[in-house]
Amino acid sequence: MFYDDPALTLDRVLTTMAVEGTDDERFREVMRSQLGPKQRAREFVAAELGPGIPVRFTRHHVAHAASAFFPSPFDEAAILTMDGVGEWETTSLAVGEGASLTPVQSIEFPHSLGLLYSSVTRYCGFKVNSGEYKLMGLAPYGTPIYQDLIRENLIALHEDGSFALNLDYFAFGRGDGMTTARFDELFGGPPREQESAISRREMDIAASIQAVTEDAVLGLARNARERTGKRHLCLAGGVALNCVANGRLLREGIFDDIWIQPAAGDAGGALGAAYIGYHALADAEPRKAGARDAQKGSYLGSLYSMPEVRAELGMDNAVFTEIEDDIERAETVASLLADGNVVGFFAGRMEFGPRSLGGRSIIGDPRNPAMQVQLNLKIKYRESFRPFAPAVLEDRVSEYFELDRPSPYMLLVAPVAEERCIEYDRSAFDEGDDDMLSVVRVERSDLPSITHVDYSARVQTVQSETNPRFHELLSAFERQTGCGVLVNTSFNVRGEPIVASPRDAYRCFMRTEMDVLVVEDAILYKQDQPSWKEDDDWRARYDD
């Protein structure tokens, strides 16, 4: 079962080009893309599966819906999927009950929340399909002064939850760009150049598109509740990775509870296709919902034994000690964290999805006011404004955040508990000083390194059943410091994927200013390692 129908995608592309028009060079480029591997998906999948196994296609948004509902903890739910585009659909509403999915309604290309958000991402100087997280993180630095302009010119939000883009401002399918000259005129000038300084304009545009996106998502959710009558909502599609919108949706109380597929993007579509095959084609027994979801913490990736770890670390002559006892190891690492060390943490199965959840993570002490800047500039080599997420013991979450339920997949933004917040003066910044570091470096709570400038945090709750090693480390850190929270960010540097193997982890460790590396039972200290030789400009190979 393949998560997309290439023929329908080709139909959309050809129809769009026929209606909008295109030059010969652009037509040839598109045809090379569409008539190459994408149309041979059946052949490629069949070759991997072997002879005699039929290969079927499912619709893109049906796969998203399946990925959201079938692993969820709900017996029945409304299912809302939102992304850029899949075949023709950009947004869909369905109902999940038992082993069945029933489509209710949809919105089709070119009217797309995902494409709108990506267009603004590109205009603000970030890369599409990776920079949307940056735009979301930038939004709290700005003021949404452009949101009325966006509503009046770019997108119409209707009372029934539907929406429509004004295509005079967009160039989907008409060229290499996503927007027209009218888009530039609307915001007073050309797009920001990548890697150039971020100005007040980009901050305010980010705040504005985030506000409009949240309102659009709320409108879709209210319609979903009214149309389906269901008490629970499942979410998938790339827009469902907007954890700020998710947090607001939860706080609005439209549904009793929501569940978001951790791999909400197209990677999760593959999971959804597998679920469709299992439930619809294999005569499987109806699914049974439980108190928790069936995604197992999303720790579904690769796992390394200690013999494999020793072999991989040996390739680079790494120096390490081993601590087999879980509690002793956790206490050792917790002490290192409390002393201000930044630790690369590689333990158990790799996470499935875009978030590192304690399997392949870089971790630090959230009480350290310098940790956010240190991690961004010296470890991650990325923009200093970007916030970091807290990992918190699940049974302690309400002590630190305005959140009354688990958030295991880092897909909900919640306010830091009011009693932990510290009032700070950002007047100079608000009055026009564009130095974001002046705001970043101010302590905003007693957990300054995970508290964003608007007193929010993207929360990950940790429980022992799904990740016992990370839970034990958090518990040890709490025993030593009284704090049941750690900074958790993905184990990679800007432009590189999350590390997948022990050797990947060691190389990332040696290329950055991380202090300690933990790989399963092995602990490595930077000062003990042999000298690392590499080109000084290795980071230049990664432009984003």
In a nutshell, what does this entry contain?
The chain is built from 19 helices and 16 strands. With 544 residues, it is an alpha+beta fold. A nine-stranded mixed β-sheet has the order 8-16-15-9-10-14-11-13-12, with helices on both faces.
CATH topology of the largest domain: Nucleotidyltransferase, domain 5
Q: Total strand count, please?
A: 16
- Structural class based on helices, strands and sheet pairing: alpha+beta
Q: Please, how many helices?
A: 19
CATH class of the largest domain: Alpha Beta
Per CATH, which architecture of the largest domain?
2-Layer Sandwich
Strand order of the largest sheet: 8-16-15-9-10-14-11-13-12
Tertiary shape: globular
Low-confidence stretches: 536-544
The averaged pLDDT comes out at 92
Provide the gyration radius in Å: 24 Å
> Which sheet architecture does the biggest sheet show?
9 strands, mixed
Helicity level, as a percent range? 25-40%
At the fourth level of CATH, the homologous superfamily of the largest domain is ATPase, nucleotide binding domain
Total domain units? 2
Strand % is 15-25%
Report the end-to-end length measured between terminal Cα atoms: 33 Å
Textual characterization of the structure:
The protein is an alpha+beta fold. It folds into two domains: 1-294, ATPase, nucleotide binding domain (Nucleotidyltransferase, domain 5, 2-Layer Sandwich), CATH 3.30.420.40; 306-541, Alpha-Beta Complex (DHBP synthase), CATH 3.90.870.20. 36% of the residues lie in helices and 16% in strands. The chain has 19 helices and 16 strands. The chain has helices at 6-20, 24-34, 41-49, 60-69, 113-123, 132-138, 147-153, 181-186, 200-228, 243-252, 266-281, 306-314, 326-338, 371-379, 397-400, 427-430, 437-440, 468-481, 502-511; strands at 76-86, 89-97, 100-108, 155-157, 163-165, 232-236, 257-260, 321-322, 343-346, 360-364, 389-393, 412-415, 456-462, 485-490, 516-519, 522-525. The strands form three sheets. The chain has a nine-stranded mixed sheet, sandwiched between helices. Helix 10 (243-252) links the parallel strand 6 and strand 7. Helix 5 runs antiparallel to helix 9, helix 9 (200-228) packs across helix 10 (243-252) and helix 13 crosses helix 18.
